[in-house]
Amino acid sequence: MAKAQMPEQASSSCTGYMKKWLLRLTVFYVLYLVYGWLDAIKNRWYVFDPPFLHELAKDAVATHPDNLDAMIQHIVTNLTDTYPASAGVIALNTDSSEWTFSNAGGAMGAMYIIHASITEYLIIFGTPLGTEGHTGLHPADDYFHILHGEQWAFKPGSLEMERYTPGDMHFLPRGTAKQYKMHEGCFALEYARGWIPLMLPFGLADTLTSTLDIPTFIRTARITGREIVNNLLIGKI
How would DSSP label each residue in the chain? Predict the structure, then answer.
């Protein structure tokens, strides 16, 4: 027959339990304060200027209509001229042949990562086949500059679709989500600013739970990690 727990033992167990929860709540509160502080100052680490990127995308479309490869080279060349490696401000990936699949939110395409750091990323994303899915709910603002084709979008409560064509920019504010479709075939210059590592689970979850394309997972993680480290080494957060 089990012995009844002594009052002293019960009191000690209760005190230990309360201390554990108090410690957990303290750690959580400290992390919350640190996150709030970092979130308030993260804009000091931004390098890219959204209006500049929008003008660059429009210029690429106007200069090389219907020539996607030339548009991409136009964008990369202008970025390297504006942010030269010798300045040590930001690291860019100029290898435009380094594409990888991207499966996220039910949509599938391919992407070329031009830049990835803790607070910003810049990619070319798209597919010649068309795709559809969920944008994701992100802790970052997203600027989607259409280079080729069309993107359609919809949010609950709207009775008509949003339509974006070459030269247009689809802005998705932090903390919002939409259904989107890259109609038939579409490519875009996508820029996000915010806490990029917190976006990675959305970007990689479909690969781990649906496609099981482990080589793509490894390739994506390797390229993203490499670019983040390259930027950290020059002080770009």
Answer: -PPPPPHHHHHHHHHHHHHHHHHHHHHHHHHHHHHHHHHHHGGGG----HHHHHHHHHHHHHHSTT-HHHHHHHHHHHHHHHS-GGGTS------TT-EEEEEETTEEEEEEEEEE-SSEEEEEEEESS-EEEE----SEEEEEEEEEEEEEEE-TT-SS-EEE-TT-EEEE-TT---EEEEEEEEEEEEEEEE-GGGGHHHHHHHIIIII--HHHHHHHHHHHHHHHHHHHTTT--
Rounded to an integer, what distance in angstroms lies between the CA atom of residue 220 and that of residue 200?
10
C-alpha distance from residue 207 to each of 29, 177, 185 (Å): 33, 21, 22
For 4-44, how does the pLDDT look when each residue is reduced to its tens digit (9 = 90+)?
555 566 566 777 777 788 888 888 777 767 767 666 767 88
- Cα distance between residue 173 and residue 138, in whole Å: 9
pLDDT tens across 73-109, in order?
A: 999 999 999 999 989 999 999 999 999 999 999 999 9
Question: pTM, whole model, 2 decimals?
Answer: 0.85
Q: Cα separation of 179 and 156, whole Å?
A: 9
Residues in the chain: 237
Mean pLDDT, the chain, whole residue set = 91
CA 57, chain centre distance (Å): 19
